Every structure is written in C-alpha cells, then in structure tokens.
Amino acid sequence: MTGRLAGRVVAVHGRHFLVETGAGRYDCVTRGKKGGLACGDRVEIKPTGVDAAVIEKNLPRDNLLYRSDRFHTKLLAANVDQVFVVTAAVPSPDPGLLDRCLVACEAAGIPARIVVNKTDRPETAPWLERLQTYAALGYPLIPLAAKTDVAPLAGWLAGRTSILVGASGVGKSTLVNALVPEAEIATQDISEALDTGKHTTTHTRLYHLPEGGALIDSPGMQEFALGHLDQADLQAAFPEFRPLAGQCRFYNCRHLREPGCAVLAAVETGAVARARWRSYEALCRELDKAAKDYR
Ligand SMILES: Nc1nc2c(ncn2[C@@H]2O[C@H](COP(=O)(O)OP(=O)(O)OP(=O)(O)O)[C@@H](O)[C@H]2O)c(=O)[nH]1
Ligand SMILES: [Zn+2]
C-alpha cells in the first residue's frame, strides 16, 4: 500500500468523510461509487494534499448499525462495541422507537444498553418502572441525570467504542458535553476540517474519551425504519421469543394470530409484554406492506 495510510472515519458530512490516521486527519472523498461509509469505518486513504485524501479501500467491518426504508439507507456507525439507547421521561417517550432501536442492535449483533436520562424529573419514576420489562430481557438500565452526574455511564465507556442513539431532546448532546471535555472544540475542529459551518448537529461523529475508548454521537431521530430486516430477523430480534422457539403448533408460525401460538399464549399470561408484542406486530405489518408495494 505505497503512499496509503490506514485510518478510521471519525465524522461524516454528506459525501465527505473525516478520516483520522497516524499522520493526522484528512478530509476525504470516495473514489467512484463504493457504497456508504459510516463513522467508525476503517479505511485506507491516499493523500492528495496536506489535509485532503481519497479513500482507496473500505476495510471489512465487525458490525454496522443502520436504518433503512425502501428509498434510503442511513448508516449510523460501524465497528462499535455497544449501543446506548438514550431515553428520558420528558419529552414524552416513544416505546415503539426504543423497540426499533433494540431490534436494530439485535440484528446487527451489537449489545444494547438503555440510558434513562433526566432522573431529576419526577416523571422518571413511572418510565423507569415501565422499563423494568427491558431489564428483565437483559438490557441493562442506566439511570442518570446528564446535567448533574454522568458517572453511572462513564464506567461503561472506558476502552470501548460506543454509540449514543435516541429521540431528539433526550439529552445526547448534554451527555457528550459532560463526557468529552473537548467536545465543543472537537466539533468546531471537525466542522472546519470538513468545512460544514459551525453547528452540524445533524451528523454523526466520533469523539475520543479521556479514559480511552471512543464515543459516537448520532443525530436525534423521530423514526427508525428497519426495511433491511426479514421475518426471520425480526423474530430473532425479540429475546423474549427465544425460550418459546419450537413450541408453536405451526413450524412457520409468525406469532400474529395463528392458533396454537406459544408467543400469543405468553402474551395472554403476561410472560411476554403486550407492548413488546405490539411493536413486533407493527414491524411485521410494515414488512408485509413493503412486500406488497414491491410486487
Ligand atoms: N431536567 C433535565 N434536563 C436535561 C438533562 N439532560 C439534558 N436535559 C435537557 O434536555 C434538553 C435536550 O437536551 P440535548 O442534550 O440537546 O438533547 P439531544 O438528545 O442532544 O437532542 P437532539 O440534538 O435533538 O438530538 C435540553 O434542554 C437539556 O438541557 C437532565 O439530566 N435533566
Ligand atoms: Zn407462534
């Protein structure tokens, strides 16, 4: 690889990628159509100027977190060790969005944790209560108030690459600013390097943590489309279905309204949370609709 440098994508802005290498950072473009790149992707680049380069090669990924509908694929991050889905009781939370985030993590094979921000707000108690369902499924809950103390989260981050995802207004920026002392400066640096103007809140970027490890911030989302998943992916992404595998009357049961369905029976007894099953059902319907539209 003469003249080439190995690096990692640390910020994405449209078709520009800021790549960090042992020899500094480069504002990069891809050569031709190589498919998208995400924050955290490893690449080989060839400098074309002091701080400009072309991406010559995308290196294999350990994993990729993304969302997609029929028209767009939105890459969130690659090569991450864990995803923190940030929630808060205010503004009013959307459990459907939380489920979609978790399904995306399961499908990508990335461990997910749930941050419950704004514990200083009295509305938090019922939300935290509701989230016990998720704790029972094995998703750790991390309650904290980003405004006053981020220590409960900090302990999870050292030495790993993590990404924060979540709805708009849950406090992701507040968390990043508290965890990364130079976050504001880093953001400005990135904006200058990529020439994007001062406030690029709509883009994904990677920050280095003082204790080692990296934190990727992603733009607040209203929805999380999962057009890339098929029926089998969906079923596999609900951990509460796993102990029931093979117990439905029909081997190809979709757990929607089939007689003798073990999942539906578990919803009736409360062993599977009805709200979770509803999220599953909504995702199945979307899948069917997409298949119909496509025909
Ligand atoms: N009460 C309370 N408010 C908080 C806390 N953390 C953040 N907020 C507030 O929540 C609002 C949204 O915080 P941001 O950090 O901008 O949220 P965000 O998730 O980055 O939002 P987007 O930029 O839209 O993605 C701000 O008014 C914060 O001051 C907290 O621990 N307690
Ligand atoms: Zn079934």
UniProtKB/TrEMBL annotation:
Coiled coil: none annotated. GTP binds at residues 117-120, 166-174. InterPro entries: G_CP_dom, NA-bd_OB-fold, P-loop_NTPase, Ribosome_biogen_GTPase_RsgA, RsgA_GTPase_dom, RsgA_N. The keyword Chaperone does not apply. Residues 62-224 form the CP-type G domain. Residues 78-222 form the EngC GTPase domain. Binds 1 zinc ion per subunit. Keywords: Cytoplasm, GTP-binding, Hydrolase, Metal-binding, Nucleotide-binding, Ribosome biogenesis, RNA-binding, rRNA-binding, Zinc. Zn(2+) binds at residues 248, 253, 255, 261. The keyword GTP-binding applies. GO terms for biological process: ribosomal small subunit biogenesis. It comes from the Bacteria. Its cofactor is Zn(2+). GO terms for molecular function: GTP binding; GTPase activity; metal ion binding; rRNA binding. It is found in: Cytoplasm. SUPFAM superfamilies: Nucleic acid-binding proteins, P-loop containing nucleoside triphosphate hydrolases. Its EC number is 3.6.1.-. One of its GO terms (cellular component) is cytoplasm. One of several proteins that assist in the late maturation steps of the functional core of the 30S ribosomal subunit. Helps release RbfA from mature subunits. May play a role in the assembly of ribosomal proteins into the subunit. Circularly permuted GTPase that catalyzes slow GTP hydrolysis, GTPase activity is stimulated by the 30S ribosomal subunit. PANTHER family: SMALL RIBOSOMAL SUBUNIT BIOGENESIS GTPASE RSGA (PTHR32120), SMALL RIBOSOMAL SUBUNIT BIOGENESIS GTPASE RSGA 1, MITOCHONDRIAL-RELATED (PTHR32120:SF11). Belongs to the TRAFAC class YlqF/YawG GTPase family. RsgA subfamily. Monomer. Associates with 30S ribosomal subunit, binds 16S rRNA. This is Small ribosomal subunit biogenesis GTPase RsgA. It comes from Parasulfuritortus cantonensis. The lineage of its organism: Bacteria, Pseudomonadati, Pseudomonadota, Betaproteobacteria, Nitrosomonadales.
